Amino acid sequence: MKLSVFAPLVVMIAIGAGLGVGLTNDPRALPSALVDKPLPDFNLPPVRAEDRGFKHDDVKDEVALINIFASWCISCRIEHPTLMRLADEKRIPIYGVDWRDKREDGAAWLAAFGDPFELVGEDQSSKLAIELGVTGAPETYVIDRTGRIRYKQIGPITEDVWRQVIEPLILSLEDEAAS
Asked: Residue 167: which CATH number?
């Protein structure tokens, strides 16, 4: 028999093996190429005229969160109570980036729902969002004391996500810095 007779069988086995490996991956996990890389340089204008903007140098020597949100984002409303609680507890500095939004809409959203952010800048042109690889709002980045991105949360930070994923990472980063 010729080997060409077995070629379709070999191809089917290879496809089956590839699919089998693919099914073991978490479909919700979208790895970020920026994890363990430095936070990109940026300088965003303020959302509210009376505030100052938000720039790269504002996130220094501290473990912090950078949250991408927008007034048009329904899921941002889901995570907002968790962000407000964290801000009230002063657990971790949270910085905001109002993404692809009109400045007045972002300011009105913060006035209506509360402002959990140390500083908030607007990224109407998506320049920072593109550099961060934002795929949608909300997204949150955990930044370590050296200014490196250590984790990217896609979707809302719920109480469960906070307790099970982000808080343990933050505790680990704080312990890392202390030793």
From this structure: 3.40.30.10
The predicted pLDDT at position 162 comes to: 97
Domain of 114, in residue numbers: 33-178
Q: Is 162 domain-assigned?
A: yes
pLDDT digits 0-9 by tens, 45-78: 999 999 999 999 999 899 999 999 999 999 999 9
Q: Using alpha carbons only, give the angle 125, 128, 131 rounded to the nearest 5 degrees.
A: 120
Of 154, 133, 169, 135, which is closest to residue 28 (Cα–Cα)? 154
* pLDDT category of residue 27 using cuts at 50, 70 and 90: very low
Complete edge-to-edge strand list for the sheet that includes strand 94-99: 120-123, 94-99, 64-69, 139-143, 149-154
Look at residue 16 and tell me if it is in a domain.
no
Question: What is the C-alpha separation between 170 and 172, in angstroms, rounded?
Answer: 5
Residue 84: inside a domain: yes
Cα gap 14→110, rounded to integer Å: 53
